[in-house]
Amino acid sequence: MRVLGIETSCDETAAAVVTRDEAGKPRILANTIASQFRLHAEFGGVVPELAARAHLTSLDRIIAAAMTEAELEWPQIDAVAVTAGPGLAGGLLVGLMTAKAIAASRDIPFLAINHLEGHALTARLTDGIDYPFLLLLVSGGHTQILTVRGLGRYERWATTIDDALGEAFDKTAKLLGLGHPGGAAVEHAAGSGDPVRFDLPRPLAGQATLNFSFSGLKTAARQLAHRLQPLREQDVADICAAFQACICDILADRCGRALERFSGEFTSGSPVLVVAGGVAANRAVRQVLQQLCDQSGARLVAPPLALCGDNAAMIAYAGLERLEAGFFDDLDVTARPRWPLDETAPAAIGSGKRGAKA
């Protein structure tokens, strides 16, 4: 089967086609992405209305490009999968309405995909890993540790009680005048910095929790930058290096204890830790997680850099797995700007949501 995937949850307009080869191995036939980087750069972040308009303008062209890259005609597409949430409502609606129109006009199955499930299953697309596995999901809107027991079977063990990690990177980059997107800018600046010149806090260090907190670290970086005004280029590099070193220490601590718990609950075979989401592209993060897995006898799986950020290949693959399992959705599905993977998980105070309690 060949599944067309559509992704419009934030500021990437993407379409892809995924299938399996004769041996059953997933194969990406096309993966086309139009970035809105230049559109939002002057604002230092994504402007939702502008993003939705850009999706509306370019999605038809991106889908056509993906079909051309895959060398397919419409009768050869067996289903269409689309991100239905979480994400920016305007962008989600553009993708959903387009996918519904395709499904209705071609009379093919329609699959509404959780964007986070797309990230979670990317390691199965690229590395063919088996269930269960431990997932560190780190992106602009989410920072979570989950167990992935099977398709649609997700248990959240930890989340952020305030900012998501990608958001902390972006806001720190904006503070230091490094531009948007911030994660890559901070990583680049940290490469020439001294990570031990400044001592920044490790929030929740020593506490009996797997949860994350990044607002205090972000505030400490801002206060440090204000004390050092006017900032020299080396000051910026050293702040970035210290900030990134804190992040790596926090992730190693939480993932190390999560791996211990995972090994206790799933005793067969060596544990697999998957890191997914936009922050998974950070090389320092990958390095510290690889060191952790080497020390604990676990296997680290990180997607290729091109599949860490938002893309439609992961949406198409999630749709393929769901289609093979006999799932599909009705065309009355609506956008879900907030859609947790584990809908039974207890609320965490903060956790990146509006209101005093989420």
Describe this structure in words.
With 358 residues, the chain is of the alpha/beta class. It folds into two domains: 3-121 and 307-324, Nucleotidyltransferase, domain 5 (2-Layer Sandwich), CATH 3.30.420.40; 132-305, ATPase, nucleotide binding domain (Nucleotidyltransferase, domain 5, 2-Layer Sandwich). The chain is built from ten helices and ten strands. It has a five-stranded mixed β-sheet with strand order 3-2-1-4-5, with helices on both faces. A hairpin with a 5-residue loop joins strand 2 (12-20) and strand 3 (26-35). Helix 5 packs parallel to helix 7 (215-227) and helix 8 (233-265) runs parallel beside helix 9. It starts with a strand and ends in a 34-residue tail after the last helix. Mean pLDDT is 93; it is low at 351-358.
